[in-house]
Amino acid sequence: MAKKLVIAGGGHAHMTTLENLHRFVERGHQVTVIGPSDHHYYSGMGPGMLGNTYAPEEVRFATRQVVEKQGCIFIRDKITGIDGEGQNVRLESGDTIPYDVLSCNLGSQVPRRIIAGELEDIYLVKPIERLLAAQRRIVELGRQKSIRVGIVGGGPSAVEIAGNVWRLIQDSKLRPAQIKILTKSTIMPNHREGIRKRAVDSLKKRGIVIHENCETDRISTGKISESNGKTHDLDIIFVAIGITPNPVFADSGLQVGMDGGMLVNRYLQSTAHDNIFGGGDCICFQDKPLDKVGVYAVRQNPILLHNLLARLEGKELQPFEPGGRYLLIFNLGDGTGILNKWSIQIGGRLAFMAKDYIDRRFMKRFQRIE
To answer: Which one is the CATH code of 4-109+243-324: 3.20.20.70, 3.30.1330.120, 3.40.50.720, 3.50.50.60?
Structure first.
């Protein structure tokens, strides 16, 4: 009997499912995909897009086109609520979409608790599309004057943003700029000393200033304020203070983990509703906490595809095995990178070339279905 599958979000964990939507249609099921944009941008290449290493069309998937090409429905909207008992999702437009099975890949967001007012010349590092707006604004201002750019945060995202802002300014032949990172502890505090040192050396060599032990308590247009009263006047501000799962699950009364992500079992299935599945940054894996890195979303792809088909047709589900240590490569914005896996650390151009090859291969695989 034909059933209704709703796919919420076209992110990394849903890529294989989106690639195989025709399989659901061939079995007589109705598929609706809901997303806030006609495209999905690959976050791993976002900083490179900011730095003009990649054009926007190189780092995005044509979600609507892929969905409609396979005879499914695409709705450009945002999900504001999930009714697990009534089996429907509520949209920002006011519409309600029913489902028999729901799969969520709603991603994550940067907390706004320390931001006052509107986001004028303030750019959260997610959604990735905001980096395009930041790029345009930097070029616009940088042609008029020497600009001051601040990045709040000290993790990999802050490092990649700082390095790629530097590249954008160099390649666009803008006036010299001041770039500073303000981090509450150290740069890359959750990574090994060798990685931290490579990142710091790269940034400092290019004149990027690092302010450690800065407790930012307020961000407003043109200004960052520290808890000790010190202020920083800036033209452009990036906010890279970590991410939290989409709040829609907690707001909807679904079971969530400590981080607010939808709590799922080993089948990537909601612990509260067995016809709701999820992957990527928006979930909390019940068996063990998973880092918020794209590799887990990629590894969840085949499991979600299998389990969605299986749940629709009453077949056996497959468990998700997170796997072992994963490869990390950071784009420093000057044609170099930092590669780390197990005890192996490689810096320089070779590391960036490896990242570039892996990212382009990933994009090529899923863009071929557009």
So the answer is: 3.50.50.60
